[in-house]
Amino acid sequence: MVYVVDVGQMSLAFEAGTDSHAAEIAVAAWFVQAVDRLRGGVPGMERLDPAPRAATAREIVLFHDMADEFAEVAPAFLLARVG
Known about the structure:
4-stranded antiparallel β-sheet
């Protein structure tokens, strides 16, 4: 299943097997560091809610399009901007 965390005006998607696994990923130190790097200290890009939500149909399509595009070179975990 595809999940999204919203960071300011940016929505970041990732895959997880269950809601609880997505919640664990969203608060893992490595994930928080990755999100912080993407934010780049831009004002207004604070992470408002660390709780992931289920992706919308549009976000799922965008995520899978990116996953397909990077399938040969992407690491095991893909964090994609979908909004």
